[in-house]
Amino acid sequence: MTDTSQDRHYTENVQNKLKQVESLLNKLALLEKIIHRQDLPREDRHSLVDTLAHRQHLAALRLKLDSLHPADIAYILEALPIERRLQVWDLVKTERDGKILVEVSEPVRESLITSMNREELDAAAGRLDTDEIADLAPDLPHDVMHDVFKSLSIEEREQLHAAISYSGDSVGALMDFNMIHIRDDATLELVSRYLRRFDELPDHTDQLFVVDRDDCFKGVLPLNRIVVNEPEVAVGKLIITDTLQLHPDEKAEQAALAFERYGLVSAPVVDEDGKLVGRVTVDVVLDFIRTGTENDLLNQAGLREKEDIFAPVWESAKNRWTWLALNLCTVFFASRVIGSFEGTIVKFVALATLLPIVAGIARNSANQTTAIILRSLSMGQITRDNARRLLLKELAIGVLNGLVWGGVSGLFAYFLYHSVSLGIVMTSAMLLNLMVGATASVAIPLIMQKLGRNPAIGSSVLITAITDSGGFFIFLGLATIFLT
């Protein structure tokens, strides 16, 4: 089965689970609605609801939820309106609350945490590993975090303090402390006996991390080497020393690229003194990549942050204001560009019908280029040395597209309005605006990155403003020069 078909199968599977939960919720709501319509005293109606609903549908819904993976429950919660979301959340077993909170998106997590009291939050966080608590820390109330710290051992407190001290885009934020490390002077027999003491190995354990007496990292020992070698062989003779080592302060993007490039399942995290402090696993890297992709898509659309699709109207509207305001300014500017050529448009009404073509083609071409630039930036492929060559290449593409599609547009204008001059103006404007769009689509992301900003944030809005206003100015300016 290919990756695409696997993804499709998973999506269909989790969507079917959502439909099943929604069906049970609908049956429950219908039953309660019918009972409330009965002409009975309020106390009797409440008693009837409690008896019938629990017996017929509530238990079935709880049983269904108990059978689902925390990630599937998180998906379902995100897809439900707030009232139903909280109804489902109340039915989830308490011991799984923490795992589900880690899985859901931040906006949905906030709505769930708001509905929980201090004791519930303490219990949910108390069942998590320190790296998972660190993920929840920004959303948990201070008093809950205080309770959590008090409940941890000294070693776990140090781990949690270290985890929350790293920025969200660093390797330290992805780090997992649940790992197995062994000494380099041990034999494989000792290692095997040590591993058998575990009820189960930590997830994604494909290799053991080897350290010396001072916990300094020496290398890794793949699990398959333990199986195929004699028990009396020393670990030090079998370890791989030439292996990728991550550092807590490194950018998480670089770690993600390394995992993709080398097909890693896990990698050690080593501090500046060479000591092993944690590991990064492929599941966390995939979550980071997915989240980064989602954020980039939102940022390109001008959204400041993720939003709960069922959030209150006011909150969702505010999230979209910043770039809408900027877009409004750019549109007004574009309208003033058109207004300054009002006399030319009055003489040649055909110009008004051709304006959207000049702007639209350049906008689409620029957005294509921007997508390529953003991807290359995220992979670290654009450097100071090759940036100029990349700009020249995109300008050359703009010239080629301008000659081809500008020529087509010019012929189109000629056949419509029987004006050779108008056709030439159309071709020239298309050529120049495509070059403007190519320059902007390369320059804007590079400049924003140099300024320390996310190059994906609002790039499409800025490029649209430049190609629209620039296209209007170029087209109408050439028309004023050559047609009047």
UniProtKB/TrEMBL annotation:
Predominant location category: membrane
Transmembrane segments: 395-417, 423-448, 460-483
Organism of derivation: Candidatus Gallionella acididurans
One GO cellular component term noted in the UniProt record for this chain: plasma membrane
Compartment(s): Cell membrane; Membrane
Keyword field: CBS domain, Cell membrane, Magnesium, Membrane, Metal-binding, Transmembrane, Transmembrane helix, Transport
Topology in the lipid bilayer: Multi-pass membrane protein
GO molecular function, one term: metal ion binding
SMART domains per the UniProt record, alphabetical: CBS, MgtE_N
Quaternary state and interactors: Homodimer.
Name under which the protein is recorded: Magnesium transporter MgtE
Coiled-coil regions listed: none
SUPFAM superfamilies on file: CBS-domain pair, MgtE membrane domain-like, MgtE N-terminal domain-like
Record flagged with keyword Iron: no
CBS domain mapped to chain residues: 239-297
Function: Acts as a magnesium transporter.
Family statement: Belongs to the SLC41A transporter family.
